[in-house]
């Protein structure tokens, strides 16, 4: 990626708002929701590329939802095991990882604490965007 303009054109990548990144921001946040892996993840790759272009670190933000549709305890146990592997994979790529429980703090609060240059997320065409999706960027 030679410039940040390509962020606007990849349908697998979601930006909260268009426009230039905040050059005073401390990092590029990848809001991980759908694609929970450190490899073969187009949105994560874009976030890392953007962070490199901006000279900022990349950080993955993941928030565990309290009641995911049709999820049971077995689903959550499997996901938590995979998240440990994910953290190790992100570490190998030089990417930070922040895990928050649903009741603790959301993305908007994390953004207010961190003051990111850019927020990037993975996008699902079937997903309904929440009010938090339109948040910080």
Sum up the structure in keywords.
137 residues; five-stranded mixed β-sheet; 30% helix
Describe, in plain words, how this protein is organized in 3D:
There is one protein chain. This protein is an alpha/beta fold and 137 residues long. It has one domain (28-123): 3-Layer(aba) Sandwich (Rossmann fold), CATH 3.40.50. It is built from 3 helices and 5 strands; from the N terminus they run ββαβαβαβ. The protein has helices at residues 42-54, 73-92, 107-114, and strands at 13-15, 28-32, 58-64, 96-101, 118-122. A 5-stranded mixed beta sheet has the order 1-5-2-3-4. Strand 3, helix 2 and strand 4 form a beta-alpha-beta unit. The chain is globular. 31% of the residues are buried. Mean pLDDT is 79; it is low at 129-137.
Category by helix and strand content = alpha/beta
Tally of DSSP β-strands:
5
Order of helices and strands: EEHEHEHE
Q: What is the terminal-to-terminal distance?
A: 19 Å
Number of domains: 1
What is the fourth-level CATH superfamily?
A: HUPs
CATH class: Alpha Beta
Shape: globular
Strand line-up in the sheet with most strands: 1-5-2-3-4
**Average pLDDT level:** 79
CATH architecture: 3-Layer(aba) Sandwich
CATH topology: Rossmann fold
Helical fraction: 25-40%
Number of helices: 3
Low-confidence stretches: 129-137
Largest sheet: 5 strands, mixed
Into which percentage range does the β-strand content fall? 15-25%
């Amino acid at each position: 990626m030679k410039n940040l303009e390509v962020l606007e054109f990849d349908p697998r990548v979601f930006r909260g708002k268009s426009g230039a990144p905040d050059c005073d921001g401390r990092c590029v946040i990848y809001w991980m929701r759908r694609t929970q892996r450190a490899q073969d993840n187009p949105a994560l790759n874009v976030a890392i590329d953007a962070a490199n272009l901006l000279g900022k670190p990349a950080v993955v933000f993941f928030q565990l939802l309290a009641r995911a549709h049709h999820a049971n305890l077995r689903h959550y146990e499997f996901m938590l095991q995979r998240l440990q592997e994910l953290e190790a994979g992100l570490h190998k790529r030089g990417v930070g990882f922040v895990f928050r429980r649903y009741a603790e703090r959301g993305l908007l609060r994390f953004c207010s604490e961190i003051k990111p240059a850019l927020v990037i997320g993975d996008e699902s065409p079937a997903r309904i965007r929440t009010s938090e999706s339109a948040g910080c960027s």
